[in-house]
Amino acid sequence: MTELTNHFRISDFTDDSKPREKLLNFGADVLSDAELLAILLGSGTKERNVLELANFILKENGGLIGLRKIHKEELIKVEGIGSAKATAILATIELGKRFSKAVQGNDQRPRLRCPEDIYEYVHYQMEHLDHEELHIISLDTKYYVIAEEMLYKGTINTSSIRVAEIFKKPLLLNAATFVLVHNHPSGDSTPSAADIVTTRNIIDVGKKLDLPLLDHIIVGAGTYSSIKNYLN
């Protein structure tokens, strides 16, 4: 007796249900994350069709946010993912990062007036990192970005941050104000007591230099915190 299975080949789908045809007929924006990834993969395995394989990869890695953290070695452990498909996925992720930055700087410089603006500007490049980074963003009088610089990389001990180094670049650029951003690889964006103390010290120095800190944002996994909200 033949064993029944719920596994379907992608060829069993109607044309309107196949990811490639669906994109051509209705546009890329109607496709799910799994369907877009399935187009990139091209084929599945005997056990999983390409859509099932795409869903498995997303589920195992916590969706798109988790997938942005993945390494080639982890991808090729998945049955059906060889070096070619792994490098295609990694290249697409990197293109997404670069495209996001290019779009932001195409029409005009990004304008960061509030915590939400800051988070939207930095989250794509920072929330997926498996290590800590501290960035400083210099702004002009209308809050447009002049420059962004990474000051620290690795495990950041806020007590060891040199305040003089924080102000060096904004002063050289004649910035009107600036923003600090760092990430928590744990995913929890809650500031530590040291984060709050360090931020308070930077605010005090900024007042003396007539170079105020607009905000200090901590980026987590899909979330963020404004340290200034903890100072009131």
CATH class of the largest domain: Alpha Beta
CATH architecture of the largest domain: 3-Layer(aba) Sandwich
Number of domains: 2
Which parts are unreliable, with pLDDT below 50 for 5 consecutive residues or more?
1-5
Shape summary: elongated
Could you give the count of β-strands? 5
| Helicity level | 40-55%
Alpha-beta classification: alpha+beta
> How is the CATH topology of the largest domain named?
Cytidine Deaminase, domain 2
The SSE string, one letter per element, is HHHHHHHEEHEHEE
Task: Please summarize the sheet with the most strands.
Answer: 5 strands, mixed
> Alpha-carbon distance between the termini?
73 Å
Mean pLDDT level: 86
Helices, by number, come to 9
CATH superfamily of the largest domain: Cytidine Deaminase, domain 2
Rg over CA atoms? 22 Å
Q: How much of the polypeptide forms β-strand, as a percent range? A: 15-25%
In which order are the strands of the major sheet placed?
Answer: 2-1-3-4-5
